[in-house]
Amino acid sequence: MVEESLTKSQETTTSIQTQEQCVHHWIIDPPDGPVSKGACKLCGEEKEFPNDLSYSWKEDNKDEIKEEDLFSL
């Protein structure tokens, strides 16, 4: 009974996260070349992550920058 409740709870959480914007939990493959593949543990979305240390995360997410972040640029 407890096990069934946990499973239903996990399914509900997963369903909610895929319907709304997921707060990703990335699982990223080890470095092998210029990029590593990653997949979100929660929703399954896939993305490539650069292995270059000079890469700028702010530049990649410039469309997602919030107003309060503008003063820290």
Give a quick precis of the structure.
With 73 residues, the protein is α+β, with helices and mostly antiparallel strands.
Q: What this model shows, in words?
A:
- Strands 1-2-3 form a 3-stranded antiparallel sheet, with no helix packed on it.
- It has 2 helices and 3 strands.
- The termini are far apart.
- The mean pLDDT is 72.
- It is elongated.
- It is α+β, with helices and mostly antiparallel strands and 73 residues long.
- It has a domain at 2-52.
- 0% of the residues are buried.
- 30% of the residues lie in helices and 19% in strands.
H-E string? HEEEH
List the uncertain runs.
none
List the total number of helices: 2
Total beta strand runs:
3
Integer-rounded radius of gyration:
17 Å
By helix and strand content, what is the structural category?
A: alpha+beta
Which range best describes the helical content: under 10%, 10-25%, 25-40%, 40-55%, 55-70% or over 70%? Answer: 25-40%
As laid out across the biggest beta sheet, the strand order is 1-2-3
What characterizes the major β-sheet?
Answer: 3 strands, antiparallel
Distance between the termini: 52 Å
Shape: elongated
| Mean pLDDT level | 72
Strand content: 15-25%
Strand-helix topology:
Elements (H helix, E strand, L loop, with lengths): L1 H18 L6 E3 L6 E6 L5 E5 L6 H4 L13
Antiparallel strand pairs: 1-2, 2-3
Task: Using brief descriptors, characterize the structure shown.
single chain; 73 residues; alpha+beta; three-stranded antiparallel beta sheet; 2 helices; 3 strands; 30% helix; elongated
